[in-house]
Amino acid sequence: MNKTYLIIAAALGALSVILGAFGAHGLKGRMEPDALDIFETAVKYQFYHVFALLAVAIISQFIPGNLLTWSGRCFIAGVILFSGSLYLLSYFKMIGNTQMNWLGAITPIGGLCFIAGWLLLVIAAIKN
């Protein structure tokens, strides 16, 4: 088992719950609905990929090699780039700073990281 990925997944999972609750209770009414939707998308994808990272952490004890290591790295990078850019974008929308809309261009890079992580997991499973 990859203990590092397990710890990161658990921490990201706790953060997902905290941010989800904050969004539902602390931001509702303070954010425009479109900015809140962006925030909720960030939380949702972060939480989905907590489970992906947990799977990588557990499966790594059965399937050795670098493919799972890179899969986990891609999931972590995806959370940072995809969800992180959406968190920042929703914040800047909330405060009315339209100069930071370029952050939306980072989000697809995070999405590509998620896709790469899943594909690496598939390849690792096939090669085993």
From TrEMBL:
Record's bilayer topology term: Multi-pass membrane protein
UniProt entry tagged with the keyword Zinc: no
Main location: membrane
Keywords (A to Z) from UniProt: Membrane, Transmembrane, Transmembrane helix
TM stretches of this protein: 47-68, 75-96, 102-126
Protein localization: Membrane
Listed GO CC annotations: plasma membrane
Family: Belongs to the UPF0382 family.
Protein name: Uncharacterized membrane protein YgdD, TMEM256/DUF423 family
Annotated source species: Parafilimonas terrae
Lineage: Bacteria, Pseudomonadati, Bacteroidota, Chitinophagia, Chitinophagales
